[in-house]
Amino acid sequence: MHALDILRDGFGRVAEELPTSIEGLSARQLLWQPAPEANHIAWLAWHIGRCEDAQMAPIGKRPQVYSQSGWEERFALPYEPGAMGYGQTAEQVRAFCLDDPALLSDYYDAVHQATLQILDGLSDDDLDAVLDDPFKVTAEVRLVSVVNDITQHLGQIGYLRGLLENKS
User: Fold this and answer.
1) What distance separates the 2 farthest-apart alpha carbons in the chain?
2) At the N or C end, where does the chain have fewer CB atoms within 10 A?
3) Rounded to whole angstroms, how far apart are CA atoms 151 and 7?
4) How many CB atoms lie within 10 A of CB 119?
């Protein structure tokens, strides 16, 4: 298996698991927080998409799905344009609103399709390219970092769902 195949597999696992992780939950359940300072499932699912979208776009030298395909308007969140969740306060997480739970899966699916197109356009040599950002990491390091980040958040969603389903 080549590096790009491994990356496709990693991103593919998130694409398979995220919809089932939130399936059947109401907007109210998706917004439930076990504590006032905790993230909720809806915010985490949105953040997974935003992390992947915002970090894959520069690698693919293309615009973010969120800002170019109307998702920012559909979510209509009370955040600055282009927000992706990094550094947000508990108050900002609580301000997240959601009327249509399908929006979360639909957005991530659009991001995943863009990710696959980006990966399909890369060669193994492209993975060694140093990105033009403050961290000056290679594309390979950034891609592994994205997979690591979004899978951790997917695990957090699973944990929260377990708490939600078993709370008294």
Assistant:
1) 53
2) C
3) 12
4) 18
Tens-digit pLDDT profile for residues 31-81: 999 999 999 999 999 999 999 999 999 999 999 999 999 999 999 999 999
d(CA 99, CA 127): 39
Encoded tokens for 32: 């439930």
Residue (of 142, 107, 109) closest to 7 by Cα position: 142
Q: How far apart are the first and last CA of the chain?
A: 46
Distances (CA, A) of 100 to 37, 54, 105: 24, 23, 10
Exposed, middle or buried: residue 29 (CB in 10 Å: 0-12, 13-18, 19+)?
middle
